[in-house]
Amino acid sequence: MMSFASRKSHVHRRIDSIQSAQSVRSSKDRRSRAGSLAARPVPVSHDDAYSYALRVAYLHYLLQPKAKRKQWVPAPKPPPRTHTSNIGDLVKEFVPGNTTSVKLPHSFHTPLLKRMEGVIRGSETLPGYSDPAVKKTFAQAYTAFTEASFKKSMDKERKVEPLVLIFYSAATKACGLGHTPGDDSWKLLVDRHVALFVRLVTHILRAQGDKPELLSRLNTLENKLLTNDQNLFIDTSQDAGKHIEVIVPLSYDVKDMSMVQAVAKIFGLAHSDVQSHIDAQRPNWTEEAALKDLKGYQHRLNANMSGVLQSQDFELEEAYQDWKKAEGPFLSSMMMEILIAKPELAKTTSGGSAASEKPLPASPSAGYGEEQSYADLNRVVSSPNRNSIYGLDNRLSLSSMTLEDAASIRAVDEAHYTFIPADPREFLKVIANYALEFDAMHGNADEQDSPFSKQSMELLTELCVRWRIPQFTRLIVYMEVAARRFTDTLFTVIDLDSAFDLIKSTPPEKELKKPPPIYLYSGSLATIDRGRWTLADSTTYQQMLHTLHDALLRELYETLMHCYQPKPPSAGPSVHVLQTHIFDDPSFARKEEEAMEYTKMLQDGMIEQAANVYRGFLDVEIPPDQHDWNFSHVKNLGNSVVKLCEKIQKRYKSNPVIMGVNPLTVLAETIFPSFENDAHELVKRIMQVARDKGDELPLQDGFDLYKDLVEIRRIHRSSLPNQPFTFDVEELLVEFVWRWIQNAEERAEEFVEQAMKHDQFQVRSQGPEQTSRDADRHSHSVIDMFQLFHQTADQVFQLEWDNDVHHARFMTALSKIFANSIARYCEIVDQRFVKEMDTPRPNEQEAAALAQTTQSRFMQYAKDAWNNKEKIEPFQFYPESLVKLNNIEWAMQELDKLEKTMNVDACAAILEKVDGPKKQVRRPAKYVFTIKIVEAEEIKACDPNGTSDPYVVLVDEYQKRLHKTRIIMRTLSPRWDESVDVTVSGALNIVATIWDYDTFGDHDFVGRTSLKLDPIHFSDYLPREFWLDLDTQGRILLRVSMEGERDDIQFYFGKAFRHLKRTERDMVRKITDKLSRHITASLSYEALRSLLGRNLASQVNSFFKRSSTLPTLTDADVENALQSLFAYFNDNFSTMKETLTDATMVAVMTRLWKEVLMAIEALVVPPLSEKPSSQRPLNQRELDVVFKWLKLLYSFFNAQDETGEVLGVPAEVLKSPKYHDLNSLNFFYFDSTENLVRISERMAAATAQRQQQQLQGQMSSNRLSAPAAFSAAAAGPAFASMGTIRRGKSIMMSRNLGTMRRAKEEKRKEAQADPSDDMILRILRMRPEATGYLKERHRQKERMAAAAAAAMIVKQSVNQGWNNSAPSFGRGGIPRR
Q1: Model-level pTM greater than 0.70?
Q2: What are the distances in angstroms from CA 119 to CA 123, 128, 170, 963, 1149?
């Protein structure tokens, strides 16, 4: 790469060669067309330029309009004015009152007085009545008119004369006040006021539309009165005069010559020196000499002699003729100007010429000689009535004036003109240069909008007028001077642009009103046709453009070599002049190859400058020793690069491309790859040094560096869209994010513990008297936990990590942290909740103190039995226990929001696309077993009443407790329906132990069994049910399903939701267990028998009284039987309502409703099994009572108010599948066994057919996992010990509230659309004759379940072998929020 100095010289040599070649080409092209041009002009000296400039300026002084001054001349005294002497005669003459046609109308007196009142008040609208003297006169007359006698006389005679005469008298009196005797000036005002009165009378009569003759006479009288009162001024008797204008003679003093003063300033001379020059040349520099110069120029023009422009000086003959035709009137006007300035020149003749010699005619058609011309001019000039200097006779033409001797005409090239130099163009150029230099040094830039000042421009224009220089030549000469000053570095580009604006702008409007006699003065170089130019001007202008082009390119190159500096010179002016004034000019021809060469040269130079700037950044920002490097150095280097790019982008925003080169693009192409390579190596070296030292770089430094590098990459992509970034920023810095996530996991574990430790679990009340809102009924621990979750996710969101795969993996890792935190939170909350719920209340503590012996225990039983007859006290729920339940409910809502914020499905889709199906079929390292403890049958009785209060404890082979169920009171066939997740990495044995709960003393052992959880046995991922025999008696049903522990974001969210849902369900069950004992007692067979027994006693009494009507069981009796239960519910609900949220309250009531349905179901039919039952079926009356109870309980839980608004559990929740099954009992309960068997067989056949169709459809699908659930008909409703296979709720189905709602809705639809024969089979258990059918159905369902399991295993094997293609997803980033 060549150095800057060599490059600069190379550019200059190249531009000089272009200029010389262009000059040679131009000279060849124009030599034939400019044959008449003179040789190279002789240099003009300073003194010569000054001399001719002074001559023209002095001539301008001589020919300027002569100044005039005002002189006072006394005026003759005007004749005295007269006034009316006898008003009576005047009135009788013009308004005689002897005829009715001139009399006033009746009642004329009233409107007259109203109008006079208006004059006095100043409200009269007619002009002339607002004068104070007029108001005074009218007030005087108004007093006379209002006298009663005068009014009576007027109404009788109706004459005008009395009115006028009385008003005249009042006016005389009013106007004469205050004047001295002998002063008659006021008498004129009397005539004026009387005339105004007559005008008012006339206006009133005209408004009434009558008396035309009277109106005419009154108008005549008014005019007569105003004859001597035209101006109404008072004569002061002072003599008046006037000013007249007289011509001021010339002083011939420089101080009176503005243009001469301008010449003195331009050439640097004192006024005294200029005055001496003028005084010495006054005899020579005369108007007569100027007139002779014009005559000589005119003669040469008419005779086509040398010394003026000729035809060969123009490219077109038409252009020459237009110029020549325009010169004649210009010369005439200039001669006229001289003759006007000195009229005596028109009266004199050329006395020195011979009488016999005739004047040379200007043209063959010229018929006037010099004598006749002067005579005509003398007549025009001396005429006193001429309107303008152009008021000549049409026959007279100043162009015809000639001197008497053609030989005496002075040639321009002989330098015999007085005011015209030998080479006017060269003289104009020199003088213009002096003027530019002076204006640049002394001009005011704020007041001067062009290179020349106003005084300089006036002088130059006068020179062009006297030297007959056309407008285009004048402007080109100005531009020549400006171009020379620019190439000599005396002008800036802005000055050059101002010069171009001058020559391309038309003269100001005020100058065009009276333009100087210059050819095409009203035009500019932009508007004057280039065909009218002379060849010399065209050649000069073209050469000047090429010269400026080369100079501007050099200037632009020098400027752009500093474009990356902090404060570089602006390239805008140079580019503007080149594009606007050079390239767009039709006289300039630009070669494309030269432009491309210059662009390449400019680009190479800017690349070198950009590289130098970047090397400077490296020297400043990066220390020499690599052990001193850190991320701040890389950031600072990047910031320097970014700031420079932003500065360059802003600097060249309006003009991004200069001569084909984009400074920002050049900078980006040069500096970005260098920085990117250096930054990559720097970061790797810094990280390696830290690893060698065993240090960890600060995480925030890594994040800040990432943001800076991403910003640089953004600028790189916008500036260089086709050039990739040199390294993967995300891959380089991803370990910082993983370290931060690891720290977040550690913080989350400790945070949950501390949040639980400091939480009091109290409702956040707004005030002691205000009811808490639902939003305030959860405590701080769950709020703080989810704030931590959102802050943790926001930290990753704020990084705006531009790698979708990385981002999806970050979200997956965070979801695992959140799931583990929620699991721990649920574990602690559940433990505390169970402890609080099992803590004995005060009344229970008293009972425990008494229960020390067996005898006292039986006494407590007796006391409890007696108390059951009275009102049962509600359970004392602790507010903190209910707040914990609110926390779990609120956590599910917040987790659902977090799931949407993290865009879980999009993350999973991207990872599935990247990882493909192989990861899905890979054997996981851990497995999640879901164990559902469903029910038990025929367990050992441990209580005196022949029942037990069983609960199950689940432990592993290491005696670690996995789960404890709730207690089911007084039953030998309990149903728990509780689930627990167990995570294993291999086979694990679990032990299920059933215990009998005793309020006092130790709990009794009921039975024990075990089960091995081996992932190999559940490799098909299908659920299984196991009836396990207890080691004492009876058996227990466990439903087990397995899922692989997956590193999947959907799996982790599903796991978290399952933890929350199970915790909520267990807590709700714990609450309902406290209430279910009374539900079971109120809806038991004993309660039913008691109700019907009381009615039976009434029937017996009626029989002994021999009543004819047996008492019936009324609806009120049925409802009263439940009043204690309703009161118990209301008491407990009111307590819970104070703390629980609405949603949690509905969940508790829904669970209670399920307990109610289970109690009624147990009352009507036995559990489902293949064995006969000893339970007695109800009769019709008992069944009717049960269904009335169901209806009453439905209304209680639905709780509609008077308007129909549901305040309790919604109807769609209450009408569950179990509710519909109970309602369907009426159709089958009392049917015959044969009909029930036939219906069951028909339904079983339809179920088998549907199951077969579903299996065939699933075999043809591409699903990789087991179906979410076999239909209810396919698996059957879980016969006890029938080995049915039923897919439970997987974790993936519980990953958010939406999937949980959809799964629940699908289950409801399946139950409604797929009728089951469960109820029929349960009814048949109470029919001994159906024992054989029950066993046959048991074997049939086992066969169906085995076939379904085998088909699913085959399907999974096929899919794992053939389905190797991952689902395709569209490309696109994960929405960050």
Answers
A1: no
A2: 6, 10, 15, 117, 100
